[in-house]
Specification:
The structure is a single chain. Helix 1 packs across helix 2 and helix 10 packs across helix 11. The protein has 3 domains: 43 residues, 434 Repressor (Amino-terminal Domain) (Orthogonal Bundle); 129 residues, Rossmann fold, CATH 3.40.50; 131 residues, 3-Layer(aba) Sandwich (Rossmann fold), CATH 3.40.50. The protein has 13 helices and 12 strands. Helix 7 links the parallel strand 3 and strand 4. By secondary structure, the chain is α/β, with parallel strands linked by helices. The strands form 3 sheets. The protein has a 6-stranded parallel β-sheet, with helices on both faces. It has a 4-stranded parallel β-sheet with strand order 7-6-8-9, with helices on both faces. The protein has a two-stranded antiparallel ribbon with strand order 10-12.
Length: 337
Amino acid sequence: MRSRIEDVAAAAGVSMKTVSRVLNHEPNVREETRQRVMQAVEALQYRPNLSARSLAGQRSYTVALVYNNPSRNYLMEVQGGMLEACRASHYNLVLAPVGAPRLRKAADLRAVFEHFAPDGVVLIPPLTDDATVLEYLEEHEVPFACIAPRHSTGRIGVMMDETAAVIELVRGLIALGHHRIGHIKGPPAHGACLWRYRGYRQALKAAGIDEEPGLVVQGRFSFESGIEAVHRLLDMAHPPTAIFAANDDMAAGCIRVASLRGLRVPADLSICGFDDTPIARHIHPALTTVRQPTSEMGRMATMELLARIRSPDAGRMVHVEHEVLFRESTGHPPRAC
C-alpha cells in the first residue's frame, strides 16, 4: 500500500505538520529533525500526493521551462538539470514552448497558466530578455528565474562570463598560429550572440589582428544555419583557417560541410564551438569548445526559483565558471597566414 504522511510522521516521531514543513523546505526546522523525517521518507518510499498538496497549499507544485531556443542539445541539457531539482523537491516540470510573434507569445503564456498553473517559470535565452514575456510574468506576479540574462539586475537565476570564455578560446587558436579566424554568430536577440562576438573581437584586438567583416557571418544557433554559414566562409577567395561557431550545433554543421568538401579537420580547417553539449563529444573529430555547465545551470536556476516561490525575498543570481576544452577539431593552420 502507498505510504501516507501519517506513516512518515509516526516513523519519525513528529507531527504531520513538521513532515510537511520538511518536505516543503520551510525554515526553522532543526537539522536533526529534518534528517529524521527524510530517513523515514526514504525508508517508507513516501511520495507526496501532489493533488492534495496543491489543494492544501494553494500551489500546483509545478514549474515550467519556458523556451524558444533552436538548439535542441542545449534545451535537453537544461531540462535534465531542472528535472533533477524538481524531483528533489517533489515538483513537476512542464515544457512550455513559446512562439516568436508578440501576440503568439502572450497567447502561449496564457495557455500554459490556464492548463498547468505553474508556481513559477525558468526562462532560457533568448526569452530571458524578451519584453513581452517579462511584462506578462511581472504583471501576473509570477516568480521566475533566468539562465544567462543579458540584463541581470534584479533578476535571480544563473549566468557565466561568456565573453571571458571566448577570449580564452580564441587566444588558444591564435597561439596555434591562426590569424584568419571566422566567426558564426548567433541570433541578434540572444544575449550570447553579443557576449561571444565581443569576446571574439577583443581577442583579435589584443593580438593585434584586424577584424575582417567578411569573416563574420550570421547564424541562428541551429545545425542547419551552421551549414549555411560555413559555405559562405569557405567560398571566400581567402577562406579562414579556423572557425569559431557560437554554439556546438553550428560547429557540428561546419564539420559536416568540411567533410563533404574533402577538407580534413583540423589539418585543413580548425573548428570550435561553445557549450560542450553531448554533440561536442559524440562527433568526429571531437569538438574543441567552451564547457558551459548547462545541466547544472538548469538545476541551479530551478533551485533559486523554488527558493523564490517559498519566500518573495529569497533567490539570487549565481555565477558559474567556464572551462575551455581543446580537443581533436583544432590544430595548427596548414599554411602561414
